[in-house]
UniProtKB/TrEMBL annotation:
<keyword id="KW-1133">Transmembrane helix</keyword>
<dbReference type="GO" id="GO:0044780">
    <property type="term" value="P:bacterial-type flagellum assembly"/>
</dbReference>
<feature type="transmembrane region" description="Helical">
    <location>
        <begin position="51"/>
        <end position="70"/>
    </location>
</feature>
<comment type="function">
    <text>Role in flagellar biosynthesis.</text>
</comment>
<feature type="transmembrane region" description="Helical">
    <location>
        <begin position="20"/>
        <end position="39"/>
    </location>
</feature>
<dbReference type="Pfam" id="PF01313">
    <property type="entry name" value="Bac_export_3"/>
</dbReference>
<dbReference type="GO" id="GO:0009306">
    <property type="term" value="P:protein secretion"/>
</dbReference>
<keyword id="KW-0282">Flagellum</keyword>
<dbReference type="GO" id="GO:0009425">
    <property type="term" value="C:bacterial-type flagellum basal body"/>
</dbReference>
<dbReference type="InterPro" id="IPR006305">
    <property type="entry name" value="FliQ"/>
</dbReference>
<protein>
    <recommendedName>
        <fullName>Flagellar biosynthetic protein FliQ</fullName>
    </recommendedName>
</protein>
<keyword id="KW-0472">Membrane</keyword>
<keyword id="KW-1003">Cell membrane</keyword>
<dbReference type="GO" id="GO:0005886">
    <property type="term" value="C:plasma membrane"/>
</dbReference>
<keyword id="KW-0969">Cilium</keyword>
<keyword id="KW-0966">Cell projection</keyword>
<keyword id="KW-0975">Bacterial flagellum</keyword>
């Protein structure tokens, strides 16, 4: 196992992590922005008003994207397990 293999695995791991976290983070960003915009317009500064909608939206995003996220993670894991013989020098 050489440094290129380690860097390739690390890069693939970071890429998968970014793809899997994107739906949740983008949802939280959009909902948080919308709630803060409403708070600034109405001048209501309540902490729970910003937390509860984000939590609900993130839960919905996980329900919608959950199957895709699991299949991406299983695919990545299977690919890593398939590369073990090559990384150990067996073929």
């Amino acid at each position: 196992m050489d440094t290129n293999s380690v860097l390739d695995i690390g890069l693939q791991g970071l890429w998968v992590a970014a793809k899997l976290s994107a739906p949740v983070l983008i949802t939280a960003l959009v909902v948080g922005f919308a709630v803060s915009l409403v708070q600034s317009i109405t001048q209501i500064q309540e902490v729970t008003l910003s937390f509860v909608p984000k939590a609900i939206a993130v839960g919905i995003a996980l329900l919608v994207c959950g199957h895709w996220m699991i299949s991406e993670m299983v695919s990545f894991t299977n690919e890593m397990f398939a590369r073990i013989p090559q990384l150990l020098g067996g073929g």
